[in-house]
Amino acid sequence: MRRVSCIVMVLALLAGCGGDEQRPAAPRKTAVANAPGAAIPEELTGAWVRTFKRREVEADAFEPGEYVMRLESDGTLEVYFGPGKHDLNADCLGQEYCDPLTATAKGSTLTISETPSCSAPGDYSFTVDGDKLTTKTVKDECTSGRPTIFGNRTWTRRQ
C-alpha cells in the first residue's frame, strides 16, 4: 500500500510539472505603487549606497558591507545587499542578494512596503541634501529587518 501511495504522489507531481500547453512563467516584476501621490520625487530617485558596520546589522543576522538602494519614480524600490557585486541593470529577482519592494512618498514621508520579515508597511521621513539622503523612522511596527536598513540612516548617491 505504501508503494502505491508513493507512485500516486510521484505521478501527481509529474503531472503538475508541465507539458506542451504550458508556457513558462513571465519574470515577476516588483509591484508598482499606484496610489495617488505615490510618485517618488525626482530628488529621491536613483541609486544610493551605504556601508553597514557589523554592529549595525548583526542583531538581524545581516552581513556587514555595502548595501545599495535603488528607487525609481514609479515606486519600485530594490535593496541590494550581501557579498559580491550587484548588477543594477539586471532584474532584482534574478539576483541572490536583492529584495524587491515598493515605496510611496507623501510630503517628506516615504512609506516602504511589507517585507518578508515585516507584514505591514513602515513610514520614514527623508531629507536630501546634495548627494546625501537621510531617513528616520516615523512609524514602523516591525522590530527588525526594514528598520535596520532605513531607520535613522544616511545614504550617499551612487555615482
Question: Helix and strand layout, with pairings?
Answer:
Layout: H1 2-15, E1 46-52, H2 54-57, E2 65-71, E3 76-80, E4 98-106, E5 109-112, E6 122-129, E7 132-139, H3 146-150, E8 153-157
Antiparallel strand pairs: 1-2, 1-8, 2-3, 3-4, 4-5, 5-6, 6-7, 7-8
**Order of SSEs, N→C?**
HEHEEEEEEHE
Second-tier CATH architecture: Beta Barrel
User: What is the C-alpha radius of gyration, as a whole number of Å?
Assistant: 20 Å
What is the end-to-end distance? 65 Å
Determine the structural class based on helices, strands and strand pairing: alpha+beta
Global shape: globular
Classified by CATH, the class is: Mainly Beta
Number of domains: 1
Share of residues in helices: 10-25%
- Count of discrete alpha- or pi-helical segments spanning 4 or more residues: 3
What is the topology, as strand order, of the major beta sheet?
1-2-3-4-5-6-7-8
Uncertain spans = 1-37
Mean pLDDT: 77
- How many β-strand runs? 8
Portion in strands? 25-35%
As for the CATH topology, it is Lipocalin
Q: What kind of sheet is the major sheet?
A: 8 strands, antiparallel, barrel
Structure in words:
This protein has helices at residues 2-15, 54-57, 146-150; strands at residues 46-52, 65-71, 76-80, 98-106, 109-112, 122-129, 132-139, 153-157. It is 14% helix and 33% strand. The relative contact order is 0.16. With 159 residues, it is an alpha+beta fold. It has one domain (30-157): Lipocalin (Beta Barrel). Strands 1-2-3-4-5-6-7-8 form an eight-stranded antiparallel β-barrel.
Concise structural overview:
The chain has 159 residues and is an alpha+beta fold. Helix content is 14%, strand content 33%.
